[in-house]
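2024-03-11 09:14:02 INFO worker-7 job=invfold-0412 stage=load source=structure_tokens
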């Protein structure tokens, strides 16, 4: 170990042009570590622990260290805070208690807090370091600044480091920065050029801590070691799709001022998931240790990625987010944020090897479990006739399991029906005893599993890479800008997209399931469920319901909108055909609509409108149960419509009601055929009952069994039992069909309908499918939201 680290350092120094360091081989020199933001959360949680481990490992190699926690607070206030943090560092298991106590004591002795605010503060720090070096007669190996501060402070600090705190000549300077690196392409460019004024590219270490995860950093070595097995299948002929998924259970409470400006795409997809994607798809470098080659091949991936269009992303937001925003940003109750907390994005690489292979990047807050993984799912062309559990019928996949989830530890899993991977890394082992858990729908025992012998924090890995001057786990300026170049257009096109609201946790159910269709991605479940208060200023919302268009609003606005749509259809039909054929349903839902239509009776082309019945109860037309009577009382009576334009259903013939032999249905059908061109109504208004019946087509009554007939007699389960109705043949010929659903009582039905497949016998309303026309659902918020 000593030898390798030592040689690597010598090589590095030599490459850096500091040949004289080789003469100092016995004493590699002194390193000053400065954590700016040294008492902040990240420093407290990971950084000090990481630097302690570095200290423990490198002291053996002859390095000497001093550590500085920097911050804006004066030293008397912050010093005790820093030491509380430092006291909490711990040793790894293989260090004895006594030795650990000793190492900790030394570490504390070498550490101090320094206020780092003004240029003078940085000058003082430099003087302090130089004085120490002189007093102890030490050579300086380098200075490492870790900027654990908000990104807006980067440029200023980098400037102060450059002007006042560069190391003595011959020693290295490394400045570590962590995302966000800008907000979009422009801001990333500005930040990069500001930093470029103060730091050389090789002095900047832009960290993506995801790259320090043990499984992520083994993706390339794994691909290399298994090259012979992977080469034949790592392509579009064999890969079904690639998934990169980071699921979180936490919300962003307390971080809203930051998060609301970024959202999940900037926070996670643009950086962590994109980096993983490049590792999976880049061409393997000839030399895995060559930073330049790794970065160059990653850049090549960005060049071949097809632009990501608006239809290649769906976004969501957890329900409580809005309230958190109002509280933390001090906004009023009607403030709405459309920042996504969930996103699924579909990408394609324009290269023969991956042509047409969907690459899915998914992440979200407040999901059902905490887990990070990426999966290469391979095509399986084997059909198992009898035993679907045969190993060769199961999914063929390689899973890079970053951590958490059901497996709980980081691992690389290869399904046994694929191949047995080789393992050449001595820090990894094969797992042979399997817990009884499933990982991505396969029991663990169906995988070959490799895992690190010792689990290490990503930050420790990265800190040791920084110390070794290894840069392939870091983001170069060029790669950073390439990534923003990819994401910025998508972010702009999503800027006005209303996210799907999800309740959070297990309750999300299948709400966030997505489906890939051609080059597009959509939510699998098309019902839009939004919470009451989420609607806020939105009066009328458009969406999709059962793959058709949906208009939703509070009842009053919805009725106004439907009335306007009917009038528009009427005017268009009169313009084109000189006549407008409107078929109206009975029931109580349309009453509000009828009232609305009477309000505008002067502008509506009633003179050229023919009114037809969708269905009728077999009662005398004067009966209070008669649909026609209702229509008459609430609409026809109030508008100037010619008498012969009104077409009630002939339910009463020969003084009897709906007798088959009297041929009432056939009579009405003939009337329709005679008046209505092609028997295609311009507009059919339907409702839907609690049992999902529409018109008078009831569940379990062979609703499709009316053949070509346009009108039929049917039986209702409720009184009056006999009905006359338009059939699906008539309804589905219409130019436009509106399905009006209102009231809280229909919420259950709407929820059910959003999930069921077409099955008109069971769910008659699912048989409404205009062949050449358009179906629009008008659902009020009560029915939609319950
Ligand atoms: C750092 O500061 C010096 C002046 O002190 C300036 O000449 C130099 O360009 C700056 N930037 C870099 C990358 O050295
Ligand atoms: C691979 O790259 C590393 C780092 O640049 C270098 O030290 C090493 O010699 C290279 N190996 C080969 C075989 O070229
Ligand atoms: C919130 O806004 C109100 C009204 O603008 C203001 O009076 C109050 O001081 C603000 N509170 C905070 C915490 O910013
Ligand atoms: C009847 O419909 C057909 C087909 O849609 C159309 O071509 C024709 O012009 C229509 N006739 C009248 C009188 O509107």
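2024-03-11 09:14:09 INFO worker-7 stage=emit residues=786
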């Amino acid at each position: 170990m000593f030898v390798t680290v030592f040689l690597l350092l010598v090589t590095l120094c030599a490459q850096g042009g500091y040949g004289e360091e080789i003469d100092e081989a016995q004493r590699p020199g002194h390193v000053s570590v400065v954590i700016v933001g040294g008492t902040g959360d990240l420093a407290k949680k990971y950084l000090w622990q990481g630097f302690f481990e570095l200290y423990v490992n490198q002291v053996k190699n002859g390095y000497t260290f001093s550590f500085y926690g920097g911050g804006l607070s004066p030293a008397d206030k912050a010093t005790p805070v820093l030491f509380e943090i430092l006291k909490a560092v711990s040793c790894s298991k293989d260090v004895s208690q006594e030795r650990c106590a000793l190492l900790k004591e030394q570490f504390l002795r070498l550490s101090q807090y320094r206020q780092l605010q003004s240029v003078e503060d940085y000058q003082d720090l430099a003087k302090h370091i130089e004085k120490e070096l002189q007093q102890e007669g030490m050579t300086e190996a380098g200075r490492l600044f870790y900027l654990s501060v908000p990104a807006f402070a980067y440029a200023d600090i980098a400037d102060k480091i450059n002007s006042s705190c560069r190391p003595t000549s011959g020693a290295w300077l490394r400045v570590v920065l962590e995302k966000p690196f800008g907000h979009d392409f422009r801001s990333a460019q500005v930040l990069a050029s500001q930093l470029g004024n103060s730091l050389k590219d090789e002095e900047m270490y832009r960290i993506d801590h995801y790259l320090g995860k043990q499984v992520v950093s083994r993706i390339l070595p794994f691909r290399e070691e298994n090259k012979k097995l992977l080469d034949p299948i790592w392509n579009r002929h064999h890969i079904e799709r690639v998934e990169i998924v980071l699921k979180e259970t936490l919300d962003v409470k307390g971080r809203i001022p930051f998060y609301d400006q970024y959202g999940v795409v900037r926070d996670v997809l643009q950086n962590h998931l994109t980096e993983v994607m490049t590792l999976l798809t880049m061409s393997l470098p000839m030399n895995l240790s060559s930073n330049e080659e790794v970065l160059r091949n990653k850049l090549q991936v960005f060049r071949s990625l097809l632009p990501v269009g608006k239809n290649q992303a769906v976004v969501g937001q957890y329900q409580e987010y809005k309230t958190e925003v109002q509280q933390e940003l001090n906004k009023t109750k009607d403030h709405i944020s459309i920042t996504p907390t969930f996103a699924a994005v579909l990408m394609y690489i324009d290269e023969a090897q991956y042509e047409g292979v969907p690459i899915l990047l998914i992440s979200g807050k407040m999901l059902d479990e905490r887990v990070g993984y990426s999966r290469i799912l391979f095509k399986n062309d084997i059909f198992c006739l009898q035993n679907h559990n045969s190993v060769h019928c199961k999914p063929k996949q390689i899973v890079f399991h970053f951590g958490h989830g059901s497996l709980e530890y980081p691992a690389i899993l290869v399904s046994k029906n694929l191949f047995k991977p080789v393992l050449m890394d001595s820090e990894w082992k094969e797992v042979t005893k399997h817990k009884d858990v499933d990982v991505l729908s396969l029991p663990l025992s169906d995988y070959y599993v490799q895992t690190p012998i010792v689990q290490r924090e990503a930050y420790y890995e990265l800190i040791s890479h920084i110390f070794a001057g290894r840069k392939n786990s870091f983001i170069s300026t060029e790669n950073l800008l390439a990534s923003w170049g990819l994401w910025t257009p998508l972010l702009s096109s999503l800027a006005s997209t209303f996210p799907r609201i999800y309740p959070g946790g297990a309750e999300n159910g299948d709400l966030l399931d997505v489906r890939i269709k051609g080059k597009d991605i959509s939510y699998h479940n098309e019902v839009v469920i939004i919470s009451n208060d989420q609607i806020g200023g939105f009066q009328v919302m458009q969406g999709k319901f059962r793959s058709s268009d949906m208009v939703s609003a509070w009842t009053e606005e919805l009725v106004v909108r439907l009335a306007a749509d009917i009038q528009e259809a009427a005017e268009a039909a009169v313009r084109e055909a000189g006549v407008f054929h409107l078929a109206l349903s009975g029931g109580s839902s349309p009453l509000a609509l009828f009232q609305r239509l009477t309000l505008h009776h002067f502008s509506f082309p009633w003179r050229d409108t023919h009114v037809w019945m969708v269905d009728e109860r077999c009662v005398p037309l004067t009966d209070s149960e008669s649909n026609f009577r209702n229509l008459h009382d609430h609409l026809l009576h109030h508008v100037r419509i010619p008498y012969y334009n009104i077409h009630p259903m002939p339910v009463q013939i020969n003084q009897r009601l709906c007798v088959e032999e009297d041929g009432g249905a056939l009579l009405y059908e003939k009337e329709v055929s005679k008046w209505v061109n092609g028997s295609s109504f311009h507009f059919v208004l339907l409702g839907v009952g609690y049992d999902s019946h529409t018109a008078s087509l009831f569940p379990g009554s062979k609703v499709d069994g009316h053949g070509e007939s346009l009108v039929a007699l049917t039986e209702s389960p409720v009184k009056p039992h006999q009905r006359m109705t338009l059939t699906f043949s008539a309804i589905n010929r219409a130019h436009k069909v509106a399905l009006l659903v209102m009231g809280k009582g229909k919420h259950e039905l709407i929820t059910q309908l959003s999930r069921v497949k077409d099955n008109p016998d069971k769910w008659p309303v699912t048989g409404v499918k205009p062949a050449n026309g358009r179906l629009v659902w008008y659902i009020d918020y009560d029915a939609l939201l319950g």
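2024-03-11 09:14:09 INFO worker-7 stage=report msg="The first strand starts at residue 30 and ends at 36."
2024-03-11 09:14:10 INFO worker-7 job finished
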